[in-house]
Amino acid sequence: xxxxxxxxxxxxxxxxxxxxxxxxxxxxxxxxxxxxxxxxxxxxxxxxxxxxxxxxxxxxxxxxxxxxxxxxxxxxxxxxxxxxxxxxxxxxxxxxxxxxxxxxxxxxxxxxxxxxxxxxxxxxxxxxxxxxxxxxxxxxxxxxxxxxxxxxxxxxxxxxxxxxxxxxxxxxxxxxxxxxxxxxxxxxxxxxxxxxxxxxxxxxxxxxxxxxxxxxxxxxxxxxxxxxxxxxx
Length: 233
Hints:
The chain is α+β, with helices and mostly antiparallel strands.
């Protein structure tokens, strides 16, 4: 099994997201919607909001978070170009289960829920692609829950970091193999299902071992393959 197919917290790391749309499917979505731009920090959908539209991310990154009654915020996922945001609520008609926030400037195609559902009713190929994407996300969530009970917190942090940086990190110019991810320690803790203190300890250890470097809201993975070995992948 190659490195790009390594298992990471119950998922498989791919260069493209699961449920990748074909050019014809992308054209259907774009023709049914309108283009909109969000600045960093802008909320695309609030948790508890109405399921009135979906967004196809064209440029930028969107983080999906959920707030607990205790005030703890979990980072559920990061969505990038070619991925949908908000489709689950549109399919089941229920209020948004999470908040979608632009991590950097985002350009997307917004499709009203009724038009999106009509597209699914009329285009079997598009429906199957959406279902495959939802299934992959459910597998990811199941894998993360399993890891939370079976793996030490430091290993979980390393695996989540590797998964995120391979899926959504950017290559560091002039530094072959290095990838940078703009995510806070609190968000990384939420994604790994652990405390911020555990994330700090893990990142310090990884830094001492020459695997990562960090700055405010930014983590550089210096050697993804070595990090995968450290995490037991």
